[in-house]
Each structure stands twice: as structure tokens, then as C-alpha cells.
Design a protein that fits this description.
Elements: H1 3-33, H2 38-126, H3 131-161, E1 169-173, H4 174-191, E2 195-199, E3 207-211, H5 212-228, E4 235-241, E5 247-254, H6 287-297, E6 301-307, E7 311-321, E8 342-347, H7 351-361, E9 367-372, H8 375-385, E10 389-392, H9 401-410, E11 419-423, H10 428-436, E12 441-444, H11 449-462
């Protein structure tokens, strides 16, 4: 206690001592005046009891005041701690916001020079370089694209952490989602002689609640890893199970080398690629970090099970939901074999626009829409699947639409695929440039839907191979 407490204790001790001395003195005086008399004994006892009561009251007052002082000190300390906690929370929020702003600025500042590096590199590649110069150029382009992928993934992780990533939860048909992902991965799996299989996927009308494009992004990442980290001639399997009522688990298993148990905690850590770099497998070390953030934002969980020498299983769990309601009188579309369908690839990063195109092209049951949210991915999908038609946006997050168009029209594998450019801002100069680069038509948003469908029909019917390019 402080000085005040010491003074209070001193006063109480003094009062107690005086009371005791007074009682002893009075007792002695009574005993001297009335020797061997009962009255003297009674008076002495009363005085002793009174002295004891006074002493107890003095001690009780001292303890009460000490407790009150301790309570005041504790309340002051709690107030100070609450203020410090609030200051720390404000500082953390400011740092979080500053980090998000820094990553957004870094994304813009890095994307601009990367666009020049990759763009001029592609221009050089188109002009028939010598073998020696080609060997020098390819690492430049590969490194530029790698860095661009890293920037894109960093930005998405920053958007997740700052709650700025927009999601559109809806009932997602599992069978359709898994089949789309497996179709996209078939060329890569065939290149490494990896067999793709599914289990429990054929069950009809099973839905999970999620953002369809983000869930597809996550599942594509897991299946891509299962192919890349597999052994030559191995197997990758996507299985759908019910771990508990109301939950659906999608598991992706491989027959690769497996993981050590001590690596489980590291596998979702940013930039921690374990042995991938040593094995010469390309990547940024952010794919699983991004997948974890996306799954958790959709209300799900993600995990891994693995055994050395046997393989690994990555799984995601999401809430199961019912099928979306159909308007009264609307009949479900009749099933159609993949051999009777043709693929249309849209390269567009805006989810609302991709949804619109899918709903519009649903008027043509023979068309199956594939979607690429980035230009580079769109080029790869076009080379692997050779769709009957490509719908291309100009403003893409990684490379400009003109670079995509140039790559498509100058590549022997995709040069004969018709491309329709669709963009929100198309100046006469941009339209002329798109047409000079090989686009069949240029449309400006918002679309005139009947005119758009008419153009799609005309372009696909005029394409000599559109009718014989089934979905692969």
C-alpha cells in the first residue's frame, strides 16, 4: 500500500494500543478498589471484552480499507489494460489496411513492367529468332509469366485477408464441377501418363453451397498438384463422400511420393514448397495457401492425409444444400452426350459477365462453355482443347487481351479458331486493331443478346471445323 495506507494502519494500531492499555488500567483500578468482590470481577471482565471488541473493530476497519485500496488499484490496472488492448487493436487494423493497400499498389506497379517484358518478349518470339536467341528468350518469358502468376496469387490472398474478395455463393452441382475439372486436366495428365479417375461423383443432383468459380479454382489446383507431384504412370482420383450429415467431402488422391507428418503444418504456408523446387517442379508456393483461404471464406475446411511411399490425399468439406428451384413450368434440359456438344471458351475475369454468357449460351444446348479467368490460362486451354469459338475480353488481370489474341492467331494449334472480342470500352482504333490481329468480330458491352446469339450462330456455322470439334 501507499503512504495513505501506512498512515491509516498507524492510527489503527495506536487506537488499539490505547484501548488495551485503558482496559488494563481500569481493570487494575477496579481490582484495587474492590478486592475479592464479585463486582470487581464482573467489571474487569466487561472492560476486557470491550477492549477486545474495540481491537477487533480496529483491525476490521484496517483490512476493509486495505481491500478497498487493492480493488481500486485493480480497477485502474484493468482500465489501463483495456486502453492498451484497444490501441493495439487499432494499430493492427491500420497495419492490416496498410498491407492491403501496399499489395494492391505493388500489384499495379509490378504488372505494368511485366506487361512490357512479356509483351515484347512475345513479339521477339514471333519474328523467327535464331536457336541461340530463342534459348535466351524462353527463360525470360517463363520467368516473367511465373512472376505474373505470383503477383496474381498474392493479390488474391491479400483480398481474402482484408475481406475484399467478392464471393457469389450458390448451389453448385458436384458432378458437373468435377467433370469440368477432369476435362480440363486430361491433356496435362496424358502428357505425364497419369490416369484420372472418379469415385462417388456420378450420384445425380448433389449440390454444395459455394462460389462456383472459386470452388472450381480450388479443385483445379488440387487435381493439378495430384498430376504434377505424381509418379510417371500413376493415378489421380477425385472422390466424393459424406463425412457427416449435411456435409460433403471432395478428396483428391495421388500415388506420388507422399509427405512426412511433420510437413503437414507447412503445406499451407505461403512460399513453402517443401521439396518441389529441388525436384524441378514449377510453382509459386501460394496455390494451397490461396485454396485454404478460399475454402474457409466459403465456410468450408481443407486438410491433408499422406503416407510416405504411398501418396497424398487433399480434401475439402463444404455444406451440402438442395438443388436450385426451377421456375414453374420449366423442364430440366435433356441430357446430351459430350460427343454431340461443342466447346466455347470465354476468357473473362468478371464473374457477373461469365455468368451472363453461360446463361445466354444455355439457349444453345449443344454448346458447353469453358471459362478462363486469366489470359494466360485461356491460351493454355485453347491449345489443349481447341474450342469451336473463343469469346475474349480485352481487360484481363494478367496480360492484355490483344496479347492473348495475338498468341491465339499466330499459334498453329489455335490460328483457325474464331475469336469474338467483347469489351466494355472499345474505341474505333481498338476495334480496328482487334480485327487486324484476326478477330472475327468486336462487340461492346452491354450485349444485345439476340444479336450476340445470331453472331455466335453465324461464326460457328461459317467455321469449317466447328461442327466436328466435340468437347474434350
Amino acid at each position: 500500500m501507499g503512504t495513505l495506507g501506512i498512515r491509516l494502519q498507524s492510527r489503527e494500531f495506536l487506537a488499539c494500543g490505547l484501548a488495551v492499555l485503558a482496559s488494563v488500567g481500569l481493570g487494575a483500578l477496579v481490582a484495587a478498589l474492590f478486592p475479592q468482590r464479585p463486582l470487581a470481577v464482573s467489571v474487569t471482565a466487561i472492560i476486557g471484552a470491550l477492549a477486545t471488541a474495540l481491537a477487533s473493530a480496529a483491525w476490521a476497519g484496517t483490512e476493509r480499507r486495505a481491500l478497498d485500496e487493492e480493488q481500486r488499484q485493480l480497477e485502474t490496472r484493468i482500465t489501463q489494460l483495456e486502453a492498451a488492448l484497444e490501441d493495439a487493436n487499432d494499430a493492427a487494423n491500420q497495419a492490416h489496411a496498410a498491407r492491403g493497400q501496399f499489395l494492391a499498389a505493388m500489384n499495379h506497379e509490378l504488372r505494368t513492367p511485366l506487361n512490357a517484358i512479356i509483351g515484347f518478349g512475345q513479339l521477339l518470339e514471333m519474328h523467327g529468332l535464331s536457336a541461340a536467341h530463342g534459348d535466351c528468350l524462353r527463360p525470360i518469358l517463363r520467368s516473367g509469366r511465373h512472376l505474373l502468376g505470383l503477383v496474381n496469387e498474392l493479390l488474391e490472398i491479400a483480398q481474402i485477408e482484408t475481406n475484399r474478395l467478392e464471393l457469389s455463393p450458390e448451389p453448385v452441382l458436384i458432378r458437373e464441377l468435377v467433370n469440368d475439372v477432369m476435362d480440363l486436366m486430361l491433356p496435362a495428365a496424358a502428357h505425364r501418363n497419369v490416369l484420372l479417375t472418379t469415385e462417388g461423383v456420378a450420384e445425380p443432383d448433389r449440390f454444395v453451397r459455394a462460389d462456383r468459380y472459386r470452388l472450381k479454382q480450388v479443385l483445379l489446383n488440387l487435381v493439378s498438384n495430384a498430376v504434377k507431384f505424381n509418379m510417371e504412370g500413376g493415378r489421380a482420383t477425385v472422390a466424393v463422400t459424406t463425412p457427416s450429415p449435411g456435409r460433403v467431402r471432395m478428396s483428391v488422391s495421388d500415388t506420388g511420393p507422399g509427405l512426412r507428418s511433420e510437413d503437414f503444418a507447412r503445406i499451407f504456408t505461403p512460399f513453402d514448397r517443401l521439396d518441389a523446387g529441388r525436384l524441378g517442379i514449377e510453382g509459386t508456393g501460394l496455390g494451397l495457401t490461396l485454396a485454404k483461404g478460399l475454402v474457409e471464406r466459403m465456410g468450408g475446411t481443407i486438410g491433408v492425409e499422406s503416407a510416405l511411399g504411398i501418396g497424398s490425399t487433399f480434401w475439402i468439406e463444404l455444406e451440402e444444400t438442395s438443388a436450385p428451384r426451377r421456375p414453374a413450368g420449366e423442364r430440366p434440359p435433356s441430357p446430351q452426350s459430350t460427343a454431340d456438344r461443342v466447346a466455347v471458351l470465354q476468357i473473362e475475369d468478371n464473374v457477373s459477365n461469365t455468368n451472363l454468357i453461360e446463361h445466354v449460351l444455355a439457349e444453345r444446348p449443344r454448346i458447353q462453355v469453358m471459362t478462363a479467368l486469366q489470359g494466360r490460362l485461356g491460351i493454355d486451354l485453347a491449345r489443349d482443347h481447341r474450342p469451336a469459338l473463343i469469346l475474349l475480353d480485352l481487360n484481363l488481370p494478367d496480360i492484355h487481351g490483344f496479347d492473348v489474341l495475338r498468341a491465339l492467331t499466330t499459334d498453329g494449334a489455335t490460328a483457325d479458331v474464331p475469336v469474338i472480342v467483347i469489351s466494355a470500352h472499345v474505341s474505333p482504333g481498338q476495334a480496328s486493331r482487334a480485327l487486324s490481329l484476326g478477330a472475327r468480330a468486336v462487340l461492346e458491352k452491354p450485349l444485345d443478346i439476340p444479336a450476340f446469339l445470331g453472331l455466335v450462330d453465324d461464326v460457328m456455322s461459317a467455321s469449317p471445323e466447328a461442327s466436328c470439334r466435340p468437347v474434350r
